[in-house]
Amino acid sequence: MQGHKNFWDKNAGRYDRFMRKDRAAYDEMYELIRPVVKAKTVLELATGTGLIAKHIVNAAAHIEATDASAEMIAEAKRDTRSAKLHFSVQDMFRLPYANQSFNVVIVSNALHIVPQPEKALAEIRRVLKDDGVLIAPTFTHAGNSFSGKVRAFFMKLAGFPLRSKWTSEKYLRFLRQNGWAVRKSVVLKASFPLTYAECVKSEV
């Protein structure tokens, strides 16, 4: 995990510029997320510079936005203006929150880059209320076009920690196999296909 964390620490200052090319897809994603978090207590994992949290906070009751990278959290805090939004450095595999603390958990573009994503899902399950919602949008690289494969190759050369290469279908199957019922999914057009998944707890 240390090398993974160092990559994000080193690239924290460039992250927002890097994500600008996918702004249209993210705008669509915010529209999907806002009704789900309305007046709810939300935990966001792998918040990065807080892009999602800052765009949806007005709809939520409160957001705890976390990331393993201290540099990313420092960037996120630079222009935080909402009293409803709190940033902190946390490990998604060992969260400090009590069981069933949150109405909604968001983990965006993270499950494909962490080791043992099923363990992250188990920890999310623990802190999410039984009637809560998991929002887990993830870039699904495996179905890439040629240009997408070229981008993925250069990202790997730069040290980008891509661990799981899923198609959209395989990603949704992975969620189902790990105790989640997918109640809504949409593939958004971005640099790589972005599979938006909205889930509730199911029997494992």
TrEMBL record:
One MF annotation (Gene Ontology) recorded for this entry: S-adenosylmethionine-dependent methyltransferase activity
Enzyme Commission designation: 2.1.1.-
SUPFAM superfamilies according to UniProt: S-adenosyl-L-methionine-dependent methyltransferases
Residues in Methyltransferase type domain copies: 43-135
One Pfam entry name: Methyltransf_11
GO BP terms in the entry: methylation
Domain of life from the UniProt record: Bacteria
Keyword Chloroplast appears in the UniProt entry: no
Keyword terms of this UniProt record: Methyltransferase, Transferase
InterPro entries in the record: Methyltransf_11, SAM-dependent_MTases_sf
PANTHER family attached to this UniProt entry: METHYLTRANSFERASE, RHODANESE DOMAIN-CONTAINING PROTEIN
Name under which the protein is recorded: Phthiotriol/phenolphthiotriol dimycocerosates methyltransferase
Organism ancestry: Bacteria, Bacillati, Bacillota, Clostridia, Lachnospirales
